[in-house]
């Protein structure tokens, strides 16, 4: 009985090692492609992906309304 369990364990470890060796490696460049640059809206300070944001005069905005309003002025 012990021999049977030994061979089953040995075969299972062999299969596990073989799968681990043949598994395609994920490179860091593939993971970097999934990241998005986030920018802050100059009006409401909401962070949005840069590809969805609107830009004017070096400021980023989350919507057309905020773009028209311009950057928020600080109350002093």
TrEMBL record:
It comes from the Bacteria. NCBIfam families: PP0621_fam (NF041023). This is MYND finger. It comes from Pseudomonas pohangensis.
